[in-house]
Amino acid sequence: MLSMIHAFALMAFMPASIRAAGFGVPAEALAYECPIRREDLIVRGASLNRLLDSGKYVALLRGWYKCHIVKKGDIVAFRYSGSENPVAKVVRGLPGDKFRIRGRTLRINGKIARNSQGKAYLLDARRRRILGLYARTNRGTVPRGAYLVLGEMPRGSVDSTEFGFLPEGEIIGKVVKK
């Protein structure tokens, strides 16, 4: 979990040519600016250890996804259960990705889902039930406008194995190492 240590606003107005990169959209078609507000935060908690170690500083780029697409492997921040402090998790499943549970392992697009250390996510019975419900309801597909997000702990954390898909509108920004 992230907890704010020091915050400051930095309005970053990106040129349209940079915003268009990767979207396949001509720069001229983007007539608005992209405000990004940066907050320096300190990591609290161990669910992303080795990616973001507890006690280390990170930058939260608020508004990043208003001008950029969410990619697999991005670390996204969102509010969870009314908490004042944002939570950060890794995007492992994008809209349209297929997922299923086989035994205790989660598979995304036919491959065993693994953390950044290469360890397979092992789901207990409760987490299998939660994701299994979403698999049945959505025919094993991450729906449009939602993401499957996971921590680094192979046995789970407060992530999609606990609360299901993360709606796109709940993402507040991208987290990057300082």
Let me know the average pLDDT: 83
Query: Strand percentage, roughly?
Result: 25-35%
Number of domains: 1
Helical region count?
3
Ends apart, CA distance between termini: 16 Å
Helix share bin: 10-25%
Just give the CATH class: Mainly Beta
Explain this structure:
The protein has helices at residues 16-20, 125-137, 160-163; strands at residues 2-7, 37-43, 57-62, 75-78, 87-93, 99-102, 105-108, 111-112, 146-150, 166-167, 171-177. It has 178 residues and is of the alpha+beta class. The chain has a single domain (2-177), classed as Umud Fragment, subunit A (Ribbon), CATH 2.10.109.10. The longest helix has 13 residues, at 125-137. The protein is globular, with a radius of gyration of 17 Å. It has an eight-stranded antiparallel sheet.
Q: TL;DR of this structure?
A:
The chain has 178 residues and is an alpha+beta fold. The chain has helices at residues 16-20, 125-137, 160-163; strands at 2-7, 37-43, 57-62, 75-78, 87-93, 99-102, 105-108, 111-112, 146-150, 166-167, 171-177.
